[in-house]
Amino acid sequence: MEHLVIDLKEKLITRKKNENDALLKLDKEADRERILISAGKIFELEFLINSINEMLVYSEKSKKIEK
User: Which of 2, 11, 30, 52 counts the most CB atoms within 10 A of its CB?
Assistant: First the structure.
């Protein structure tokens, strides 16, 4: 299960990087709406990545307590 969560985290990091790269290519004036949408996606992806990191840290702490 932990491997699946780590794999999901890596996929989200890749999606965030791709979204950020696409955002940098947009024209600030012509693509204003797309920039807002992409920025929102990046913030959501960052939130999910941070949440997964917290879950993994909690899982590691739980494993140490069980030992």
Answer: 52
